[in-house]
Amino acid sequence: MARPAIKPLLQLVRLPNVVTAPADSLAGWLIVGGALDDPLGWLPVAGASACLYAGGMALNDWYDLEVDSLERPHRPLPSGAVAIGMAAAVGWGGLALGMALASFAGSAMLVAGLLAAAIVFYDGWAKQTRSGPWVMGVCRGLNMLMGIVAAQAPDRPAAWLGAFGFGLFVAGVTWISRSEALGGGTANLRIGIWIQRAAVMLLALALLALADPSDRAALFCGVFALTAVAYKTSAAGSRALWDPSPETVQKAVIAGVLSLVWLDAALVAAACGPLPALAVAAFWPPAFLLGRWLYVT
User: Helix, strand, or coil here: 185?
Assistant: First the structure.
């Protein structure tokens, strides 16, 4: 049997997005007191995040094969570049491997199981309904929560608020993407933009609650990163409102997706300082560079 080309497989799992997923769980780990010099603590959940995301993306296209055959025939499955059985193996195998890795991080295994269930629920049913963006937001919120739970630190309500705000931001990005995928005009765009703005406000509250008031440098870095994300995504959304073409909407979606690492970094900067935030931000360059080669949405 001929081996599939590597690029279609990487495209199937949306590799640029996969690279952003570990930043969520690492951020969750750090903002509740986990340490970077404890890789046996955070590497399992970071790996679990990547595997669960990759598996979810493969299953997304596996479930969508019939629709994509009509609307997106160039994609890896309808074009025949990746076999259907291979996509199923990558999808279900990714979810199983993600949960297995999370089992090395104690209670994170439970969150990973909930995340895997939410992924299957989204891919198999919710994606086609108005609940889809909210379910997608739950998925990314649980991804950050996996790191929070893995740290087994004293409860910090601000960290849970951060995970909620992060998930809400992702729900906004997903609403925006529907203006491209479902031809929703500007209605879905407006909903998504306002959800993103509400999410940024919640993240600002979480950031301030996580920050040490005496560490002004850490607080400045966190506020700066969050402000930059708010400006970047708001500008991209405004351009899409003026010109709701598929290309412009897609750019707004890409801006939102690639901003997720910086939201993670903003929370970490406020809670832990600039150096741990740089460790989280290090996931952005490969995601950005891969995004120039592989599509994100």
Answer: coil
